[in-house]
Write a structure and sequence with these properties.
The complex is a heterodimer of chains A (324) and B (236).
Chain A: E1 2-5, E2 11-13, H1 33-42, E3 51-55, E4 60-62, E5 67-75, E6 78-80, E7 83-84, E8 90-93, E9 98-101, E10 106-114, E11 167-168, E12 183-188, H2 197-205, E13 208-214, E14 218-221, E15 237-238, E16 243-246, E17 252-255, E18 262-263, E19 267-271, H3 276-280, E20 287-292, H4 295-320
Parallel strand pairs in A: 12-20
Antiparallel strand pairs in A: 1-4, 2-3, 3-10, 4-9, 5-8, 5-10, 6-7, 6-9, 8-11, 12-19, 13-14, 13-20, 14-17, 15-18, 16-17, 16-19
Helix pairs in contact in A: 1-4
Chain B: E1 9-12, E2 17-21, H1 28-44, E3 49-54, E4 58-63, H2 65-68, H3 78-91, E5 103-109, H4 118-124, H5 129-137, E6 141-146, E7 153-156, E8 171-173, E9 177-181, E10 184-187, E11 192-194, E12 197-201, E13 222-228, H6 230-234
Parallel strand pairs in B: 5-13
Antiparallel strand pairs in B: 1-2, 2-4, 3-4, 6-7, 6-13, 7-10, 8-11, 9-10, 9-12
Classes of the chains: A alpha+beta (324), B alpha+beta (236).
């Protein structure tokens, strides 16, 4: 397939590059791992197969051969040859079909997966694009006009296309899209107790607005400054996707997929992994409400989410066998 | 060799990682302990462990909670399981006899044309540029950790006479720039905004994605800088 018009920042991502953070190499990976997994599950792929993460305005993609694809995550009103197509369904596209995205309806990032995956070379065991290192994914960078990405699958999908037109296969999945909810569950961080009692109250009861400074590295929140008790200065230690740091001016930043490997600001809380998906689909100007939970609660939700993905993957594989 | 033991505590870093904290200090003996434990844990390859990340005085251990919960007891969390396992491991010796430390010698051009903060810093410290350079090249530094950027090494400690606080506002920094922040010295492998005081530049490539080990430096390495002139820099 070929990128015939570049988006603002579309890149190849997978589960992320783990095992190299000790070299300062940040993991990258899809911001919304759950949406990535669902897009792959629909196609019967491994759930962490590399996908294309699309932001609005997104790339326009031309298929240079018939392919079986699926879209998940944000609704950026996708169309093929101008005809609207749904998210969370398998779509057989024909040679010369053009996929484009018209407006951001809900969510922040859409994911495109193809049956069998994209032919992308792994770098340090992952296909994720690391923009800082200029490595991984497609030539270590965001997708540009003219880029050609090969597909792994050598299957002939043309038999699934009765006419010239693309075809949407007739089943969907329960994707439990919870992008509408503003509740984000968090675990207290090691420096949680540096917040004053009032600041803790403020943290758990008031809305936190996402500012314009929100990207794959992190979301700056436009909160009233949170008051902190005096404490010793921290030297750098590891931080993680979802770590909420308190900046010296009392504002918060939530670290996202392209976060640095280490940081020295107080870690007041961590967004639970099961809610990274809804967080990744929030846009500048939207509000978040933080709710405290505990380790067991966070692990339970993640386990449920992963079981759901696993079940869908099996069900979709079964359905697909009737076709390919 | 009996290893020194530092008190530590374990705390969660969200639901998929935890931190083993050996004290919030930049201290060579603590960092040796951290690096020894890092190698020990990497070689153990414990099931469900994703990766181990050393910092100045702490180790982060990433794990897969869903995988681990397949075998933990009812009522126990993946965090409980991993932290108990690590506490047991931390009671044992690392089995690492002596730190395998490489000495890496790096050329640096201390020329104001390549080092935007050099002259100002020398002036503030009432030193000549030569004196500042001599103080910076006069020590062997330890790489405490990598972070901030791929391959960015945090090294220390610089002579007290050339300590300098981080700048208030980050400025654009060229790749290869050698800087000072507090008692630390470091090198930017990539162009980046940065708040360190830039006193020189190395022509050596610190990051190469085509190498199996893409970074030139690793935590635990020792680094000594030596001065080169602009001609040598240009023809390195």
């Amino acid at each position: 397939m070929r990128i015939i018009k570049a988006g603002i920042q579309d890149s190849v991502q997978d589960r992320g590059r783990y095992g190299y953070q000790h070299l300062g190499i940040n993991p990258s990976g899809a911001m919304d791992q759950y949406a990535m997994q669902l897009a792959n599950a629909l196609l019967g792929n491994e759930t962490d197969e590399a996908v294309i993460e699309l932001h609005f305005p997104a790339s326009v993609i031309l298929f240079t051969q018939p392919a079986l694809i699926a879209l998940a995550g944000a609704d950026l009103s996708p169309s093929i040859n101008g005809e609207p197509v749904p998210l969370y369904q398998c779509i057989v596209v024909n040679k010369n079909d053009a996929l484009q995205f018209h407006r951001p309806v809900s969510g922040a990032r859409a994911y495109l997966a193809v049956h069998g995956g994209f032919s992308i070379e792994s770098w340090l065991e992952s296909k994720s694009t690391n923009l800082k290192a200029g490595a991984g994914g497609y030539r270590g960078r965001s997708l540009q006009k003219g880029d050609e990405i090969e597909l792994n699958s050598k299957k002939d999908y043309s038999s699934l296309l009765p006419g010239k037109n693309f075809r949407v296969l007739p089943w969907t999945i329960d994707h439990s899209a919870d992008t509408g909810t503003r509740e984000i569950f968090v675990l207290p961080g090691n420096e949680w107790d540096r917040l004053t009692a009032e600041a803790k109250q403020q943290f758990t009861t008031t809305p936190f607005l996402i500012t314009k400074l929100a990207d794959r590295m992190g979301y700056r929140l436009g909160n009233e400054p949170l008051a902190m008790l005096p404490g010793e200065e921290l030297i750098s230690s590891a931080v993680s996707f979802g770590t909420i740091q308190l900046l010296p001016d009392g504002k918060l930043i939530i670290l996202m997929a392209d976060h640095q490997t280490a940081g020295g600001y107080p870690r007041v809380a961590h967004v639970i992994t099961a809610h990274h998906s809804r967080l990744a689909q929030k846009r500048s100007g939207e509000a978040l409400y933080f709710r405290l939970t505990d380790q067991a609660g966070a692990e339970d939700l993640l386990q449920k989410q992963q079981q759901h993905v696993r079940q869908l993957q099996h069900a979709c594989l079964f359905k697909l066998q009737q076709y390919v | 060799m009996k290893e020194p033991r530092f008190p530590y505590h374990i705390f969660p870093l969200g639901d998929s990682a935890l931190t083993i904290d050996f004290g919030n200090r930049m201290d060579e003996a603590i960092n040796r302990q951290v690096i020894a434990r890092f190698h020990q844990l990497r070689h153990q390859q414990l099931p469900g462990l994703v990766e181990v990340v050393p910092a100045f005085s702490s180790l982060a251990v990433y794990y897969d909670p869903v995988f681990i919960r397949k075998w933990v007891k009812e009522g126990q969390t993946a965090f409980d399981y991993v932290s108990t396992l690590l506490l047991e491991l931390l009671r044992t010796e690392t089995g690492i006899e002596e730190e395998q430390s490489r000495l890496v010698r790096l050329p640096v051009c201390y020329d104001p044309s390549l080092a935007p903060d050099l002259e100002e810093m020398a002036k503030a410290k009432v030193l000549s540029v030569e004196q500042l350079t001599t103080l910076h090249t006069g020590r062997v530094y330890r790489v405490y950790m990598l972070g901030f950027l791929p391959g960015f090494a945090y090294m220390g400690e610089v002579d007290e006479q050339i300590m300098a606080p981080r700048k208030q506002q980050p400025h654009p920094v060229r790749p290869g720039s050698v800087g000072i922040a507090g008692r630390q010295t470091g090198i930017y492998p990539f162009a980046s905004p940065g708040g360190w005081n830039i006193i020189g530049r190395t022509p050596v490539q610190l990051f190469n994605r085509n190498r199996a080990l893409p970074t030139l430096l690793q935590a635990g390495d020792r680094v000594q800088f030596y001065a080169i002139d602009k001609y040598e820099f240009a023809h390195y």
